[in-house]
Structures are given as C-alpha cells and as structure tokens.
Amino acid sequence: MTSHSKAPIYYMTARVAFKKLKVVHERVVWLVSVFDNPNDIRRFDVHTMRRLEQELYGKNAKSDKHIIIREVIDKKLISYSTISKDEHKRQNHQQVQGA
Questions:
Q1: Residue 52: partners with Cβ closer than 8 Å, 6 or more residues away
Q2: If 0-12 CB within 10 Å is exposed, 13-18 middle and 19+ buried, where does residue 52 land?
Q3: Amino acid 5: pLDDT
Q4: What pLDDT does 37 receive?
C-alpha cells in the first residue's frame, strides 16, 4: 500500500556513535530528513549519512566509516516534501544500487 500524502521534513537532534582509532565516540548532531526512525535514516537517507561521515571523520579518513544513530532526541517539523515517503525510499534505494 502506497501513501500519496506529502512527507514531512524534520529538523532533528540525534545521538550518534562512531569508531575512530579503535575508540568508540558518541556525539549529539543535527539532522534534516524526511525519515524520523534511526534505521530508516541509515538505510534510505544517503545525503544525511554522507554529511555525517564528512563531519565526524573528515575528508582525509582512510578507514571504514561506520556511524550508528543511537536515538533521535528531539524533532521539529520544518516543512513538507513534494513527494511521499515511499517515493523517497524508492529514489534513495535506486541511488544506493546504482552507485
């Protein structure tokens, strides 16, 4: 079943964990996404995950970049997207498979 309503866009604060030099670090970061579930952000929001990799690891990092979104602390509605959440999932799924 597909939903034809427009997806809400959220500004969120989230707690993330990442490993750098064999030490696990945790930070509170900001996110903007149509997905509000940490697992959906990781799976479907390629742009947000790339921005977090750049912010947390820097552009010269050569190791594997694993980021875990532990929890969404708070979220605020910014606006609504022009397409539905299902269409966002399909678009991002095609980008991941095509890359």
A1: 16, 29, 31, 67
A2: buried
A3: 82
A4: 92
Q: Where are the alpha helices (DSSP H) in the chain?
A: 38-44, 46-57, 85-98
| Pairing, β 8-20 against β 67-80 | antiparallel
Distance CA(79)–CA(12), nearest Å, equals 13
Cα 77–chain centre separation? 16
Model pTM score: 0.79
Beta-sheet pairing, 23-33 with 8-20: antiparallel
Per the CB < 8 A criterion, the answer to whether 11 and 33 are in contact is no
- 22 burial level (CB within 10 Å; 0-12, 13-18, 19+): exposed
| Mean pLDDT, contiguous 10-residue spans, the chain (99 residues) | 72 94 92 92 91 89 84 94 82 61
CA distance 61 to 80: 35
